[in-house]
Design goal:
Number of strands of chain A: 14
Largest interface: A-B, 49 and 49 residues
Order of helices and strands of chain A: HHEHEHEEHEHEHEHHEEEEEEEHH
Shape of chain A: globular
Oligomer: homodimer
Distance between the termini of chain A: 65 Å
Number of helices of chain A: 11
Number of domains of chain A: 2
Structural class of chain A: alpha/beta
Strand content of chain A: 15-25%
CATH class of the largest domain in chain A: Alpha Beta
Helix content of chain A: 25-40%
Chain lengths: 359, 359
Amino acid sequence: MSISRRALLQTAAAVPFAKLMDAQEKDHIGYCIVGLGRISMGHFMPGCLDSKKSRVVALVSGHRDKAEKEAAKYSVTAGSLYSYEDFDKIAGNKEIDAVYIALPNSMHAEYSIRAAKAGKHVLCEKPMATSVADAQAMVNACRAAKTKLMIAYRCQYEAVNLEAIQIIQEGRLGTVQAMESANGFVERAGEWRLNKKLAGGGPLMDMGIYSLNACRYLTQEEPRYIEGFCSVIDHDGRFDEVEENVSFVIRFPSGIVASCSTTYGAQMDGYVRVHGSKGTLHLQPAFSYEGIKLTAHIQGEPDTEKTNKLNDPAQFTTMADYFSDCLINNQEPKTNGEEGLRDMKYIAEIYKSCGRQTF
Amino acid sequence: MSISRRALLQTAAAVPFAKLMDAQEKDHIGYCIVGLGRISMGHFMPGCLDSKKSRVVALVSGHRDKAEKEAAKYSVTAGSLYSYEDFDKIAGNKEIDAVYIALPNSMHAEYSIRAAKAGKHVLCEKPMATSVADAQAMVNACRAAKTKLMIAYRCQYEAVNLEAIQIIQEGRLGTVQAMESANGFVERAGEWRLNKKLAGGGPLMDMGIYSLNACRYLTQEEPRYIEGFCSVIDHDGRFDEVEENVSFVIRFPSGIVASCSTTYGAQMDGYVRVHGSKGTLHLQPAFSYEGIKLTAHIQGEPDTEKTNKLNDPAQFTTMADYFSDCLINNQEPKTNGEEGLRDMKYIAEIYKSCGRQTF
């Protein structure tokens, strides 16, 4: 049975995807950028400049002057600049198909839900929220509004990480037994990431989540058991509210075990090692914006070494275009709200398990 | 106050160190090798050939022909060849100052204790025993007999590992926050290491112990909390009695966290990564007999790369000579019975924590 594009569009129009119709007709997705910080101004928005499918069409910022300066670079009209107070007016802006939320973690839920209520799709930075309840509310709100929700797990769209998944899933490492990962950096005093209310937690929320997510996408399994230990070493004021270090272990249903570390007290060049009965795969850097590199030693194969030559902001272009394609083709994104919610639940389990420590 | 060597010797003679007197007079230690397997024949005994302080003077084996063949290589006289049954006769052999025990793990306790009762010092391979109780009994027996007990933690005497300890303890990495380690190999069906009674456990006993010990000697701290997950993936008969994989996490009193993996199901090139506020230190291979390599990236220092050029069996020479020096100078070895006992207790805690899993 062949269904014409017109018929499909009519079907789409029958459900509340009217806003998508516009996008489909113009073959690109217009993004409203919510939060003008490093990741949006330095990476996501430049990534859209290189894209035909993903365009910056509106900005939300508390600083009008900053917004106007950025607007000029992306040909955003004055009518498409919003403050947080008048954010809900995006509902009436037909240019906006989706929002890209790059706010402190604690604001993800509110603006995702408001965007959904405004009939806009949501691409939200990780971590999805600061609590499982908020993450669930985001999923519910987008489901109710029939808008799509994608969490910006960039690495799940990055070529070298995808190749690692493929090598493992094709069984070329044999039976995977164990893996290790670490990811962290030295956070500076005063950053919002050290504020529990804004960040929801310490390095586990911001950096450890990469290792956790990688263990899941590389194995394509969900943790059966997960636990960790947290600590604060530097009592210099930075870690009055959030942990400085976390180590955690995972046991997957197949029996694969993983051990991971994260920190805000040391520069950790993010990496993943996967040990299989027939070989070892090493990603390092595994999660960075540039130069992600895979090394594999596999029995019976020449040694593999692959580096992603597409440097920043190309990874953001790829991710944005993936979501744009999902919207244009009405497909559920791989890293949807449920995917983000799972990580939130595992993170909550790790934090809960840290409670057994008597510091 | 200056005490003459003669006076010291007289003091030593006052306590039951008569056997040591001989060693001191001849300025070398005579070792009785207990168990002619790969590690003794391939590594420890060749290591003694290169030493002036450590000599192979007696052998214990269940295979007389093998013993005679080895005896010829090391100029061991026929009168110094023992079976396990007549092992206790070593008491009367004045050439023997110490035994080197390289038996399956479950036999370490019995032969260490019998050696102590025979008035001989004990250098015992790791893991020290198959239970905390056995390890404690070994410590007690050697203490009662006033013989020294050293566990053969080779890496604690290896130059590049020692340099790593020094870099960390000098504070050159700044504040150490987190570390990861892995060590493992593919074990073959039929090996005694897969027999629970002989080995006491799976890869944690044989390979994970390197990571555990390294986390301790690199931090110079004792774990405050330690936990792990175990699993069996390959239901091919090899893992009917012992685990195939373990991941474990440690939290040290200072707050340093560590995460480690070990396996008998994959080749893991043993490594340790240490993340400090000022730099990262990487040992890989960290535990092998040859080519142990350290890489350090430290702020304000040129990148460090050191490889141990002293290949097998030189690491064994160093370790044997260290113990020989301890005996000649009547000093307690760094990796004494208590050191081994600590690892046994931590391993027991990890196994106990694995019990919370409902497989």
